[in-house]
Design brief:
The complex is a heterodimer of chains A (1029) and B (189).
Chain A (H helix, E strand, L loop, with lengths): L1 H6 L11 H4 L3 H8 L20 H17 L9 E2 L14 E7 L8 E7 L2 E7 L12 H5 L1 H4 L9 E4 L2 E4 L2 H17 L3 E6 L5 H13 L3 E5 L6 H11 L14 E5 L10 H10 L11 E6 L4 H4 L3 E4 L5 H15 L9 H7 L4 H8 L3 H13 L4 E5 L5 H14 L20 H12 L3 E7 L3 H4 L6 H5 L4 E6 L4 H4 L3 E4 L8 E6 L2 E5 L12 H10 L9 H18 L5 H11 L1 E3 L13 H4 L10 E7 L12 H4 L8 E2 L4 E3 L1 H7 L5 E7 L2 E9 L7 E6 L7 H4 L20 E13 L3 E2 L14 H4 L5 E3 H6 L3 H7 L17 E6 L8 H9 L7 H5 L8 E8 L4 E8 L8 H5 L5 E3 L5 E3 L9 H5 L6 E2 L4 H4 L26 E2 L5 H14 L11 H5 L5 E5 L6 H7 L3 E2 L11 E4 L1 E3 L2
Parallel strand pairs in A: 7-8, 7-13, 9-10, 9-12, 10-11, 13-14, 14-15, 19-24, 21-23, 27-38, 28-37
Antiparallel strand pairs in A: 2-3, 3-4, 5-6, 5-15, 16-17, 17-18, 19-25, 20-26, 21-24, 22-23, 22-25, 28-35, 29-30, 31-32, 33-34, 36-37
Chain B lengths: L1 H36 L13 H7 L4 H4 L14 H8 L7 H12 L5 E2 L12 H7 L4 H4 L16 H9 L1 H4 L19
Classes of the chains: A alpha/beta (1029), B mainly alpha (189).
C-alpha cells in the first residue's frame, strides 16, 4: 500500500514519521499493526481486576450521590456573631468615634483627630481645634498609623544574650537597670540620656525627678535636621533665644534662600496654609510673589514664581549684594549712615554677583524693584541648612527692609531643652571612652544612625557597661544595647506638649497597648522611684493629670472644677491660654559688622536634605511612605545623588549610573538622578535612607549618606564644600512614577500645554482678560454624540485649585489610608503597577537649566461620558444617577479594558494580591489588617480599582442626614484628599447646587477640564495656575 | 431501518431526555432553594432566647437590644450586659439565666449562631431602611411570634432589587415612599 502511494504521488500525499517507515522497515510495519507498543500491556492482567461490573459501579455511584444530596437538607453554617460582653460606653459597631490627640512624627507636635472604629484607630486627621495645624496633618503624620500595626514592633522587653536579643520581662529588665543606675550614682559615673527634642513639660518634670534620684544623670538632645543656625543667629542679632514665627499671609514678596518652608522646615502645614492665603485667585491684588534661590529643587522651589538656581555657598554673597543695593546704593535705612555697615558691604554688588553666577541682570533688577516697592512686606527667609553667618545677614536685610513687622509678636516657639552642642557630644564620647559613663539610655532616639560618625559614638558605646534603648522597633542603636525596652506608639500614649507660647496640645491613647509595651515616660518615672513595683498601667496618666491639677489648672484661673476642665481639654486636644512671648531686643548691628566671611567651594558642594517621606529615617519601615513618590522627582523606595543636567554631562553620567561622592576621606556610592533646575556643581542627597536595622521593609533601602556628616560641618552642618565626584562602574536602577524628564524630547516637549492638560498664565494676563484660558479652550470644546443624561438632584464634582496645590502629597497618603491601598514594592512600581488612586503629576517646561514646574493632582475624573464604562464587557463599571463613575469589585473579571481606554490613566489593577505579594506577605501579617477601613472593600487579585470620590463617605453622610431628618447637602461630604489638603486646594460638593463652592468653581473663568477635547466631560475642574511674574 | 431509528429517536428518546433534564433541574432548584437562600434556617442557639416572649409578650422595643438599628449599618447583637440589665434580678434562678450569668461573670461573649447573613461585598445599612420607616418584620418576619429565631426572607440581590424597584407596592404603609436606589454603589463599594 505504502509503495503504491509513494510511487503514485497523484493518489495522495505520503507522510512519513521516520526514515525507517519511509524505507519500509518490517519492525515499523509491525509496530503500526499493534495498538500498543511492545511491553506496555504487560502489567495488565484481567484476572487481577475487580469483578464488579460497570453497570453495578454506576448504580452504586448514583445511589451514593443521591444519598449525599438527600442528606444535604441541613443549611450551611453562617458562623457566629460575637457581641461584646459588657457594652462599651459610646461605642456602636459601625459608627466611628473620634479622639483628639497629638502627633509626634516630628518636633512640631501637631494636633490630630484619630478616627476609630470598634475601638481600633483607622485614620489620623488634623484636629480642627488646633490653632496651628487647623485640621490638617502632613503625609508622614497620617501614615504613622501604619507604624502602630507594624508586625515587627517589639512585643516584650528584650535582653541581649550573645549577639541577639531574647525575651525578658519588665521586672527583670527594670530590676537590672535600676541597680545599674544606683551603682552609677554611687561610683559617681555619668548616666547619659540621649533623646530627640523634648516637647512635653510633664516629661520634663519626670526627667527632673529622675535626675533628682540619680544626680549623675545628664540629658543630651539632638535633632537630625534643626533650626539651630537660625536660632543662634537670631540670638546674636536680637538677643532672644527663638527665631520668631512669621506672618506669611501678610507678605507680598517672599524671598526664600535655600529654604523649604513649604516642605520640611518648621510647621509646613501652618506655613502652607498661610502662604496659599496670598495665592487666592479671587484676590489677585494681594497676590504674593515667591522668589526662591536654591541649589536643589524643593517643594518650595516647585512653587516659586521666580526660581534662581544658586550654589549654596553663594547665598551669603547674594544677601550681601542685596544689602549693598539697598543700604549703600538706595540708602533705604538708617544703617546707610553707619560707616561700619557700609564698609562691610563695600566689596559686594549685585552686578558682580550676577556676573559671577551667570544670573540674568534683568531678573535681579526686577526682584530689587519689587522688593523696594513692598519693602516692609518683603520677607527674606534663609533655610535651616544655611550657616549662621547667612542667617545674620538675612536678619539684617529684613531689618533694613522693615519687614520685621512680619514677625509675629503674639506667639513664639518654645524650647524646653536646648540641643546639645558639638562640645557636649565630644564630652560625652570622651567620657564614655574613659569609662566615666556607666549607663547610656537611648530615649526613643537613634544616635548610632544619626550622629556624625567622626564623634566615634558607636565605638564609644562599646566601653559602656549598661546601654538601654527605648524604642518601638529595632534600630541601629538598639543593636548596640544590652536592653531593648518596647515603648507605646503615639496612639497608645498619654502626654502633653508645648511647642509654642500659650498653647498646650494633649495626647490621649485611643487603643490599649497592643503588646506588653510601656509608655516611655512611665519607664523613666518607674526608674526614678527606684522600684519596679511602682509601675502600674495608669502611672503616667495619673502623673500627667496630677501635674495638670497642681501646676496648669490653677494658673488658668477658671470658674470650672478641675475634672470639667480636664475632660474638656482632652475633648478638644488643645488648651489655649494667654502667655506673652519673651519678645526681642532692638537690632544689634554689631552682629552684622563683625560677621566672618564664610568659605566658598572650589569643587563640588554636597547638600544634605531631609527626606520628604522618611523624615530623619524613623519612617523607613513604613511602606506607604516609602512608596509615596518624592514630591519633586517622583522616585520611590530610594535616595540618590541629584545632579543638574550640566553637571551630569561634565561627569559623563546618565540616570542610574553610579557616582562616588567623596568629602575628605568620607565616601559613598550613589545612583545618579538628573534633576533639571539644580545648581551646577552641586550634589543633593536626601538623608534618612540606608538604614541597616529598620526591619524587613526599611533595611537596606537607599544609600546611607549620613556618612558625609561631620561634627565640624563644612559650609554648615548640612552643606559640605570641596567634594569630589567621579563616575564609577556599575548601574543602579531608580524607579519613578513619572517618566524621566522629557524637556528635550521633541515628542513629549511641553505636551502638558499642547494638549491643554496644564493651562496657566500670569496675573497680568488674568487681570487684562479674566477669560484668557477660556479663549484657547474654545477650540477644544467638543460636540457629543451621546444623548445628554439629566442629573436631577445631587451631582458630585470636585475642583482643584492649582494655584494652591504645593505638591506636598498629604492627599495621596490620606487616600491610601482611607481606601485600603496596598503597598506593592519597588519592583512593581517599576512596571507601573503602583496602586495609589491619586497621583500628583509634575511637568517641566522651559529649559533644563531653568525649568518651570507645573503640578496637577490627577485622580479619576468621574467623566459623564466615561470611556471606561463603554468597554467593560461585564458592566462592572457604570454610572450612578449622582454622577459617580462606579467601580463594582465583585463584578469585575479583570479584563483591564477600562484601564486601557482611560485617557487619564487613573485606574489601578491588582496584578497580585499585593498584601501577600509584597515582601513575602509582610503586610498580610497580623495585626496589619486592623488598619483597614471597614467601609471599603479590600480588593483581591484580578480586580480593577480607582478613585470613588470616597463613596463610603457619601453614603455615610447621606445616612446621617436621613437620621437627623434633614435634607442631604453636597457640603455634608468631605473626601479624604480634601480633608488632608493643607492648602484647601480641593473642593468637593454638589454641582447642581448653585450656591455650592464647587459649582462656583465650575463657572470660574480659570476653570478647565483636563483633556477636554476628548469629550469625556470630566467632573474634576482644575483652576489654572497664575504666576506672579 | 434508518427511517425507524430516526422516528424512534424523535418520538421517544428526545422527549424523554428533555423531560428528565427539566424535571431534575426543577426539582433541584426547589429542593435546594431554602438552603441556597437560607429560608427556614433556625440553628440551635447557645442560649434558648425567645423573641416571642420578649418581643411578643413583653413588648420590648427591638432597638432596646439592637442599639445600632437607627444609627448604624449594623443592627448590633446586644452585649451580655444588656441582658443583665433585667436578668440580674429577673428569673435568676432559672437554669438558662444561670448559664447567661455565667457568661457575664466570666467576661465571655455569647457565641450566637448567625442567622441572617449578607455577603461581605454588600454594604447594607439598617439605619437607612429603618429610618425610612420600613418595619423590621418586612425582612425578618414576625419575630414576635418566633420562639427560635429563623430566617424567613431571601437575602439575595434579586430579593433586594424586587423591593427597591417596587417600594410603593411593597411598602404601601409608608406614605410617599420612593423606589430605592438600584445603582451599584448603593450597596457595593
Amino acid at each position: 500500500m505504502a509503495d503504491s502511494n509513494k510511487e503514485n504521488p497523484e493518489k495522495g500525499q505520503f507522510y512519513w514519521k521516520s526514515l525507517k517507515e519511509f524505507h519500509d522497515d518490517p519492525a515499523s510495519a509491525e509496530a503500526k499493526a499493534n495498538e500498543f507498543m511492545a511491553g506496555v500491556t504487560d502489567d495488565f492482567k484481567l484476572s487481577g481486576m475487580s469483578d464488579m461490573s460497570r453497570r453495578k459501579f454506576l448504580a452504586l455511584l448514583t445511589a451514593s450521590a443521591s444519598f449525599a444530596a438527600a442528606s444535604c437538607s441541613t443549611y450551611p453554617s453562617k458562623g457566629e456573631v460575637i457581641p461584646y460582653n459588657k457594652e462599651p460606653r459610646g461605642v456602636i459597631p459601625g459608627i466611628a468615634n473620634y479622639y483628639a490627640s497629638t502627633c509626634t512624627g516630628c518636633n512640631q507636635a501637631c494636633g490630630i483627630l484619630v478616627k476609630t472604629r470598634e475601638g481600633r484607630p483607622i485614620k489620623i486627621n488634623g484636629n480642627d481645634e488646633h490653632p496651628v495645624n487647623k485640621g490638617k496633618i502632613c503625609a508622614r503624620g497620617q501614615a504613622s498609623i501604619l507604624n502602630l500595626y507594624d508586625p515587627e514592633r517589639i512585643r516584650e522587653p528584650q535582653k541581649k544574650s550573645g549577639s541577639s536579643f531574647s525575651k525578658s520581662s519588665w521586672a527583670s529588665a527594670n530590676g537590672t537597670i535600676i541597680s545599674a543606675l544606683s551603682a552609677a550614682v554611687s561610683s559617681g559615673k555619668e548616666i547619659a540620656v540621649v533623646m530627640k527634642t523634648l516637647l512635653s513639660p510633664t516629661a520634663k518634670k519626670a526627667f527632673d525627678e529622675f535626675a533628682a534620684k540619680y544626680p549623675t544623670v545628664k540629658l543630651y538632645s539632638y535633632e537630625f535636621f534643626s533650626n539651630v543656625n537660625r536660632n543662634s543667629a537670631w540670638k546674636k542679632s536680637y538677643g532672644s533665644e527663638q527665631f520668631p514665627l512669621i506672618s506669611w499671609d501678610k507678605a507680598k514678596l517672599i524671598l526664600a534662600l535655600e529654604a523649604d518652608f513649604l516642605g520640611n522646615e518648621g510647621n509646613m502645614i501652618e506655613q502652607t496654609r498661610m502662604f496659599v492665603e496670598t495665592r487666592n485667585n479671587g484676590d489677585i491684588k494681594n497676590f504674593s510673589r515667591l522668589v526662591v534661590a536654591e541649589s536643589e529643587v524643593s517643594i518650595t522651589g516647585m512653587n516659586a514664581d521666580i526660581r534662581l538656581s544658586l550654589h549654596p555657598e553663594e547665598q551669603y554673597n547674594f544677601v550681601m549684594s542685596l544689602l549693598h543695593e539697598f543700604v549703600v546704593k538706595r540708602q533705604v535705612s538708617r544703617f546707610a549712615l553707619d560707616r561700619n555697615v557700609v564698609n562691610t558691604l563695600q566689596d559686594f554688588s549685585l552686578e558682580k554677583f550676577a556676573e559671577r553666577n551667570g544670573i540674568d541682570q534683568k531678573s535681579l533688577k526686577g526682584l530689587v524693584s519689587y522688593m523696594s516697592k513692598y519693602k516692609d512686606s518683603s520677607i527674606v527667609y534663609a533655610g535651616d541648612r544655611l550657616p549662621e553667618s547667612v542667617h545674620i545677614a538675612v536678619n539684617f536685610l529684613n531689618e533694613v527692609l522693615g519687614s520685621t513687622r512680619l514677625y509675629r509678636e503674639n506667639q513664639a516657639n518654645i524650647e524646653l531643652l536646648a540641643y546639645s552642642t558639638a562640645q557636649d557630644w565630644e564630652g560625652l564620647v570622651s567620657k564614655m571612652m574613659s569609662g566615666n559613663v556607666e549607663v547610656v539610655i537611648h530615649y526613643d532616639s537613634n544616635p548610632v544612625y544619626h550622629l556624625p560618625e567622626d564623634y566615634g559614638y558607636a565605638a564609644a558605646l562599646g566601653k559602656v557597661s549598661t546601654i538601654v534603648t527605648l524604642a518601638q522597633t529595632e534600630n541601629e542603636s538598639s543593636a548596640a544595647s544590652q536592653w531593648l525596652l518596647p515603648i507605646n506608639h503615639d496612639l497608645e500614649s498619654w502626654n502633653d506638649f508645648q511647642t509654642r507660647t500659650g498653647l498646650y496640645s494633649l495626647q490621649q491613647p485611643v487603643i490599649y497597648p497592643l503588646y506588653t509595651t510601656r509608655q516611655k515616660e512611665a519607664i523613666v518615672i518607674t526608674w526614678a522611684s527606684g522600684n519596679e513595683s511602682a509601675y502600674h498601667d495608669t502611672l503616667y496618666h495619673e502623673y500627667l493629670m496630677n501635674r495638670w491639677q497642681k501646676e496648669v489648672y490653677p494658673s488658668m484661673k477658671l470658674a470650672v472644677d478641675f475634672k470639667t476642665f480636664w475632660y474638656s481639654a482632652l475633648h478638644d486636644g488643645v488648651v489655649s491660654f494667654v502667655e506673652k512671648p519673651e519678645g526681642w531686643d532692638s537690632y544689634k548691628v554689631e552682629s552684622f559688622t563683625s560677621l566672618p566671611t564664610p568659605s566658598t567651594s572650589k569643587g563640588y558642594s554636597v547638600v544634605l536634605a531631609e527626606s520628604y517621606v522618611l523624615g530623619d529615617g524613623r519612617f523607613a519601615s513604613n511602606g506607604w511612605l516609602q512608596e509615596l513618590p518624592h514630591p519633586v522627582t517622583k522616585v520611590v523606595w530610594d535616595n540618590y545623588a541629584a545632579l543638574s543636567p550640566d553637571t551630569a554631562k561634565e561627569l559623563g553620567v546618565d540616570y542610574n549610573d553610579l557616582v562616588e561622592v567623596r568629602i575628605d576621606n568620607r565616601k559613598q556610592k550613589l545612583p545618579v538622578f538628573i534633576q533639571p533646575g539644580m545648581a551646577r556643581k552641586v550634589v543633593a542627597i536626601e538623608l534618612g535612607y540606608g538604614r541597616t536595622n529598620a526591619g524587613t521593609v526599611g533595611t537596606g533601602i537607599g544609600v546611607n549618606a549620613n556618612v558625609f556628616l561631620s561634627k565640624k560641618g563644612s559650609f554648615s552642618q548640612w552643606i559640605y564644600s570641596d567634594a569630589a565626584v567621579s563616575k564609577v562602574n556599575g548601574k543602579y536602577e531608580l524607579v519613578t512614577t513619572m517618566e524621566h524628564y522629557s524637556i528635550d524630547n521633541i515628542f513629549n516637549k511641553d505636551i502638558q500645554f499642547t494638549r491643554g492638560i496644564i493651562r496657566e498664565g500670569t496675573i497680568d494676563e488674568y487681570e487684562k482678560d479674566p477669560n484668557f484660558i477660556q479663549v484657547e479652550r474654545e477650540a477644544d470644546k467638543p460636540v457629543s454624540i451621546y444623548k445628554k443624561f439629566e442629573y436631577n438632584g445631587i451631582k458630585w464634582a470636585m475642583s482643584i485649585d492649582l494655584n494652591k496645590c504645593t505638591g506636598c502629597s498629604a492627599c495621596v497618603i490620606s487616600c491610601n489610608v482611607e481606601n485600603n491601598i496596598p503597598v506593592v514594592g519597588k519592583d512593581q512600581v517599576k512596571v507601573s503597577r503602583e496602586m495609589q488612586w491619586l497621583r500628583i503629576d509634575r511637568y517641566y517646561s522651559g529649559t533644563p537649566v531653568e525649568p518651570k514646574i507645573s503640578l496637577q493632582p490627577m485622580l479619576c475624573q468621574q467623566c459623564d461620558n466615561a470611556t471606561c464604562e463603554n468597554v467593560c464587557p461585564v458592566a462592572a463599571t457604570t454610572h450612578s444617577p449622582d454622577g459617580l463613575n462606579m467601580m463594582v469589585y465583585n463584578r469585575c473579571v479583570g479584563t483591564r479594558y477600562c484601564s486601557n481606554n482611560c485617557p487619564y490613566k487613573v485606574r489601578r489593577f491588582n496584578f497580585f494580591n499585593f498584601r501577600y505579594h509584597f515582601d513575602g506577605g509582610y503586610y498580610a501579617q497580623q495585626p496589619v489588617e486592623m488598619v483597614n477601613n471597614p467601609e471599603v472593600t479590600v480588593r483581591t487579585r484580578g480586580v480593577m480599582e480607582k478613585c470613588t470620590f470616597c463613596v463610603q463617605r457619601i453614603v455615610e453622610a447621606r445616612q446621617e442626614a436621613l437620621q437627623d431628618g434633614r435634607k442631604f447637602k453636597g457640603s455634608d461630604v468631605v473626601t479624604a484628599c480634601q480633608e488632608a489638603c493643607p492648602a484647601d486646594a480641593i473642593i468637593f460638593g454638589d454641582m447642581n447646587d448653585p450656591n455650592s463652592d464647587v459649582s462656583k468653581m465650575r463657572e470660574h473663568p480659570l476653570g478647565y477640564y483636563a483633556l477636554e477635547e476628548l469629550g469625556t466631560k470630566p467632573n474634576v475642574t482644575y483652576l489654572a495656575k497664575l504666576r506672579n511674574i | 431501518m434508518n427511517r425507524t431509528l430516526l422516528e424512534y429517536t424523535l418520538r421517544v428518546r428526545v422527549p424523554v431526555l428533555i423531560f428528565v433534564a427539566m424535571t431534575s433541574i426543577t426539582v433541584t432548584y426547589f429542593v435546594t432553594r431554602p438552603a441556597r437562600e437560607g429560608i427556614g434556617y433556625a440553628p440551635k442557639q447557645p442560649i434558648a432566647f425567645s423573641h416571642k416572649l420578649h418581643v411578643g409578650t413583653m413588648k420590648i422595643d427591638c432597638a432596646y437590644c439592637h442599639i445600632g438599628v437607627y444609627r448604624s449599618r449594623y443592627a448590633v447583637v446586644p452585649a451580655v450586659s444588656t441582658c443583665m440589665n433585667c436578668h440580674t434580678i429577673a428569673k435568676k434562678t432559672q437554669p438558662v439565666i444561670i448559664k447567661l450569668t455565667k457568661y457575664y461573670d466570666e467576661g465571655k461573649p455569647i457565641p450566637w449562631k448567625r442567622v441572617q447573613k449578607l455577603p461581605d461585598y454588600v454594604y447594607f445599612s439598617h439605619s437607612f431602611h429603618v429610618n425610612t420607616g420600613i418595619k423590621c418584620q418586612d425582612c425578618h418576619g414576625r419575630v414576635q411570634d418566633m420562639d427560635v429565631i429563623k430566617q424567613v426572607s431571601s437575602f439575595t440581590m434579586s430579593a433586594c432589587l424586587d423591593c427597591h424597584r417596587n417600594a410603593p407596592q411593597r411598602l404601601s404603609y409608608i406614605p410617599n415612599v420612593k423606589p430605592g436606589p438600584t445603582y451599584c454603589v448603593a450597596c457595593h463599594r
